[in-house]
Amino acid sequence: MEGSPRKDTSQPDTAATTEAFKLLSDETRLELLEALWEGDDPTDSSPMRFADLRERVTVDDPGQIHYHLDKLTAHFVRNSEEGYELRESGKRIVRMLLSGIALEHPEIEPVEIDVSCPYCGGQTLCSYRDGWRYLECTDCDVRCVPSFPPGVISMSEFPPSGVRNRTPNEIGHADWIWAAHRRVSVIDGVCPECAGDMPITSIYICDDHQPDWEEYQFCEHCESIFWILVTHVCKQCEYRWSMPISNYLTREPAVAAFYYDHGVEFDFGTPEQFGLLLDVEKELLSEDPLRIRMTIHLEDEELNLTYDNQLDVISTERYG
């Protein structure tokens, strides 16, 4: 018996996406979503009655409220005999609005924080503008890639809500934790933006890598201070993330155990621990099949991990 054609779920439905954008272009609908969010009681899962919802919005005409609620029920609101409640998609929209993304533009001038530069050990400054958190060094002109201004150690996307009511040190810590969790998601192949499949799309190895490590300057050939860069791209939303291959060590229990045995609780929880990865030795064992070995040296011991073309560990060896 021939089955019915299966719907292709590998790509987003562009018609549905367009319709969703149209629905959210109306202020009354956004007000209704916010009212349902604010009226949600974690201790009571009951939907909100129409009369209660009407009291929470500025629109007086009940017909208009019904009209806009009917539009929202296709994507963002669930309607039942008991009343109205947000679908998970509706909750995500409200969370996005509350985070301040695309609505708020706070700025924080560079200010000293209690973090050392992972390259030179110097004093760092934290700043925030255009939705990005900057960490820069006052003692060196490190430049990992051409897009970074001299002295900028890192730039990371960080929502405006992350800087509210926080000191610069708290912002820096929150940003590092935020980015670390997103990085882990990417390494595990799940897009941190939409939860879509996010496989490795390239492993770039510079053929003539010559960065200036004395001045912490990128290589002119590959325009990166890192020899091997791994890129993931989401199949759904096309979100892109590139990172040095040494970041993959943070997911290996053998690495955490090795550092722990040497008195280091390695969890990649601080920028200073990123400095530990700068000392990791990398070796290209073969190109076909791709085999890359990374070696960590601590005191009189070393840990070797060999990776394949999917960056899965195929062997682990400890000496010393």
From TrEMBL:
It comes from Natrarchaeobius chitinivorans. It holds the Pfam family DUF7347. Residues 114-313 form the DUF7351 domain. Residues 18-96 form the DUF7347 domain. This is ArsR family transcriptional regulator. CDD domains: HTH_ARSR.
